Amino acid sequence: MSVVAFERKQDSGEWSDKELSALVAAFGAALAPGTGREWETGMTERGDAQFYLLSPLPDQACELCVSRIGGRYILEDGLGRLLFEHRNLELVALHAKAAVPSTSWLMVRGVTLWCAIRNTIHEKVEPLLVEGEELLVQFVPQLAAFA
Amino acid sequence: MKRVKQQDVFAERPPVKAAPDVKQLRKMAGDWLKQRRADAEMSQADLAARLGLKYYTFISQVENGFSRVPIEIMGAWASVLGLEQAAFARHLLMYYEPELHRLLFGAESK
Q1: Dihedral of CA A88/A90/A94/A100: which sign?
Q2: Is residue B22 less than 8 Å (CB to CB) from chain A?
Q3: Phi, psi of B25 (to 5 degrees)
Q4: What is the pTM of this model?
Q5: Do the chains contact at A52 and B61, CB–CB below 8 Å?
Q6: What is the ipTM of this complex?
Q7: What is the pLDDT of residues A4-32, one digit of tens each?
Q8: Backbone angles phi and psi of A69, in degrees to 5
Q9: Cis before B14? omega within 30
């Protein structure tokens, strides 16, 4: 008789490597370099594992939190709102991925930079071009007459 | 629930010289909250239940210094711990918004 070795599901204690990998993979895009986000783990007083997705510096506050209580995974936001719960971590990770605040830090920085460049062009470069154009308009008839 | 002397409870202050960052201050607030809960002889689960939360995970999130006590439940949090609401909010403001606390209450209250 052969016995199939099912993997025992962890109910308490620290995150297993498999669980951590699943969570980090789910938050892959949110944790990409340049976003400034980080993650940390912690425990409740009863020893339940918690995973925190942290916002960029300087605040580094919890944006999303996944906890494991008695084999059940709980997804909450930084204000303690319960977003999803299930025994299947993959399903919770999927919801966590969708719950990541969509306005990325990188996008905000990109838009700010673009606005700054446009403003500089408007204020500095455009007057120079207009001035050059005016000079040309002024001198062209004289040059034409001279020729 | 055990009652503690209000004056002693709010006497704890963050170190003035160190100028800790936002994360450190939030952690200090979490430690203070954890101590107040211990004074009230309550577990994280007890506090969560009294605040109407389904799970105690958020209490842990706050006490571990990763989140703040939301303003909407700050009063209830204080009451459940047997603390005066205004003093509780004022004390947490010292950790969460130290500059605002200084502007509102002055350096002498530190």
Answers
A1: positive
A2: yes
A3: -65, -40
A4: 0.73
A5: yes
A6: 0.80
A7: 665 556 677 899 999 999 999 999 888 98
A8: -125, 115
A9: no
